[in-house]
Fold this protein.
Amino acid sequence: MSITIFSQGRSTYRWAEALRERRPGLEVYTYPDTPAPEEVTFALAWNHPLGVFTNFPNLKCIASTGAGVDHILRDPDLPEGVQITRIVDENLTQDMAQFVCAQVLNHVRGLHAYKEAQQQRNWKQHSYLRTENVVIGVMGMGVLGSHTAQLLHKLGFKVHGWSRTPKLMEGVGTYAGEEELDTFLAKSDILICLLPLTKQTADILNKDTFSKLPKGAYVINVARGEHLVDQDLLDMLDSGHLSGASLDVFREEPLPAEHPFWGHPRINLTPHIASITNPASAVSQLLENYDRLRHGEPLQHVVSQAKGY
Ligand code: NDP
Ligand code: OXD
């Protein structure tokens, strides 16, 4: 039995190092340097080359090195019967919630304006919104969304969430399913997307969705670039219906230099850093699953391939 890391666009070195440090003697390879493909039972994956797993006949588990698994499930040639797992990590959860709070506070306190004003040596005070007068809608009330909603609630915002199945959360209003989406949107001064990317959620941040938000709403997408219809966001910003957006994820990453988002005055852009999995912190759950697999025990954090998350 051995572990192989399949990753494009993200470094494999820290994962290999963390695995070897925590479990000296463990056979860890980095694709394509895999001497015996038939020995590989456990894969760590981020944006792997599509179809590659068909060359590994004894693969039993593909573990995403992130919280999302869309990059694995988009492969049409996944081996039958293989289990897919994802990272659920306290640090990742806290980092996401803190990043979103930072973006929200930056928006409600209008801090961008002061950066521009500083460059012009312009001393001018602006009024700002108080937290209790702002309603925040969180799309996706899973591990990351529910923690983010709770932290925003603690800061004093009015918060409500939207998910596929109904939830009960103290201090946070909840809506579920397509039938409650419009009511949820109509009340969201700030809309945060923390949905997984699935067939049902792709392109969900579109003109129709935005038009149901109150005028002047602000949008934060920290989930996946494919949730957002780029041109619809630009149109709604230019029409004045939306006041601004914070984007951390994009259809194409790195975002191409000629993309209009780069230079847009009302878009705040970060390079997919809202919350980054730290191998040193997350490696223990991967090794736990590796051991469970060897002992024929049920794995943790398995995703439903039917639901897509
Ligand atoms: P979870 O699987 O824990 O939560 C997903 C939530 O979305 C659940 O509440 C689920 O509803 C809801 N949902 C799924 N499908 C629908 C639908 N069709 N309609 C309404 N709600 C739906 O995921 P996480 O919270 O762990 O992560 C969310 C996403 O965040 C990841 O998939 C990833 O894409 C992104 N991410 C981004 C990072 C970054 O740095 N930018 C870092 C980490 C993750 P229900 O509860 O009813 O099942
Ligand atoms: C993740 C991510 O899914 O980094 O963890 O986007």
Remarks:
- The chain has nine helices and twelve strands.
- The first strand starts at residue 2 and ends at 7.
- Residues 91 and 281 are 8 Å apart (CA to CA).
- The radius of gyration is 21 Å.
